[in-house]
Design a protein that fits this description.
The chain is α+β, with helices and mostly antiparallel strands. The chain is built from 16 helices and six strands. The chain folds into three domains: 54 residues; 214 residues, Gcn5-related N-acetyltransferase (GNAT) (Aminopeptidase, 3-Layer(aba) Sandwich), CATH 3.40.630; 118 residues, Up-down Bundle (Histone Acetyltransferase, Chain A).
Amino acid sequence: MYYVILPQQFKSLKQYEAVEIFGQKGLQLFLKYVINRLEQGGNVESQSKESLSDIVPFTTSLLNFVETSKGNVKPKEMLPAGMELPTFTRHYEKEGLAEYSQPGSPEEGETSRKRKKSESVVPTELLLRTVVKMVNDPQYGNAPVNDPTDTINLDVYRGEAARIEEKQGIIEFKVIENSLEPFQDREKMVWLLQLQSLFSVQLPKMPKEYITRLVFDDRHRNMILLKKGKGVIGGICFRPFPTQGFIEIVFCAITANEQVKGYGTHLMNHLKDYQVKCGNYHLLTFADEFAIGYFSKQGFSENVEMPKKLYQGFIKEYEGATLMGCQLHPQMRYTEFSSYMKRVRDLHQVMVEMKYPDKARKYGGIEHIFRQHNGQALSLKSIPGLENLSDDERPAKDLDLESKMKLILKKLSSDKWGWPFVAPVDGEMVPEYYDYIEYPIDLHTMSKRVKAKYYVHQHLFIADLCRMFANCYSFNGVDTEYYRCGYRLNKLAYELVAKYFPDSPLLPNLPEIKPTLDE
């Protein structure tokens, strides 16, 4: 019998890092296989058996390290120019992609110093009358009107049904993936099969084998839309590239009898919020001639803002399709964007009506007034319809606002009761905190916001202080040390705000229930 001894390493061929290609899951499977073979003895040469006592513990330690550090891997932060990291946390019920999720209170980027425009403060009385009118007038209620001439209202109207169904539990969204584990959740596999069938029906030009391969590929993720009693009625298959800061959308479809109900837009908005949470601020896709219209309505453009060198070679190009991209803002909640824009538009509209009740009145020309003044500049009071305006009605700007806020934060951070608030809550030590607290805030994050010029008015600063203490009281019981620290620090915050902002109607008031540890 003849045999050939093959070389253990082909030095003439290019070497690759297997872990970078197959990922952590592939490394875990390989380590488990190696440990099993070594413990059983395997085909080990006699001179190598002496080193088994060292190899097995090392391999076991490496496997434990990979499994425990898997959730701490963070993506490369690809922030668009001029944007900051998000300060809110949106939690989704998901499976997979845990290694790409980020903590709830990341540090905010520091923006460049620019000359700020002087701000005008709305009088409190006018603001109160505006809010009262919005509450009492059905024209400005939360329920949108199907008005084809009002684009903002129409957008809210189309998505309202989907939002109501989500609140009622009729529909829900999940992120699922196939994995290399031999035993997986049966329900998840059923959802993947339903999604594969949906894509095959709604995308007849795509080969069924190609759809199946991508949907069940462990590198791809699937955001699915579940409807009670019907299962999967829509979904988006995408592949994340966390090191590059983008995802590639491969398939997107809604079942035929559930279309034109706002599900498609709501599904895409959930995907955007999910990617903001994961730190991927660019969405890329190749759209055919039938999908360009849909993606354009979702904010995609053929002018991709992302540098080509970051995605070239990573995504697959399709013949006859157009590359489209969507850049996400890290501080935007896309599932609530249309409703928010409607409220802001209505607020401004009502405020103008309250402050200028005669705004619809028409006046004659002012050419004769210019002739009377020989073409010189006119004061606002000399122009018909502007008699109530003043040339110098802007309030004086608080030039010491930033120094006051820094001083308050410094005193709160150095106080002996301020230790629970000097940094964001550790999500690993208290995993349920960010599921319960929707808007986390702390003194460190507030200091970052001061540096980033986020607080353009004292009310924003005081509101964050109030929120910080409200989060403490709602999450911790009255018999805990955290509640007592929050109560004691709240006393100091109240004194400081009253001292440095004496005219502010907003104050961090103390709760009615006192901590039991002080009794």
